[in-house]
Task: inverse folding
């Protein structure tokens, strides 16, 4: 299960709106909102595009989407 709190924090830090993040990631706004609410799981392509859009490091990506601790 993704770390939604950490993902939301990075989204807030980006300075972009949820709509802008969704559009830049190639997702529907509704889809991103649903993923953030826990409805459905992030697909591999969504993880890649969100990681690129939010400029996540590999460690951050893994901590958010795969539950691996960042060292």
Result:
């Amino acid at each position: 299960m993704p770390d939604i709190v950490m993902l939301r924090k990075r989204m807030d830090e980006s300075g972009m709106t949820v709509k802008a993040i969704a559009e830049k990631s190639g997702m529907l706004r509704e889809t991103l909102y649903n993923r953030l609410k826990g409805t459905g799981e992030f697909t591999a392509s969504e993880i890649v595009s969100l990681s690129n859009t939010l400029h996540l490091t590999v460690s951050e990506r893994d901590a958010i989407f795969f539950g691996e601790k960042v060292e």
In short: The first helix runs from residue 4 to 14. Helices lie at 4-14, 18-25, 29-37, 44-53, 58-65.
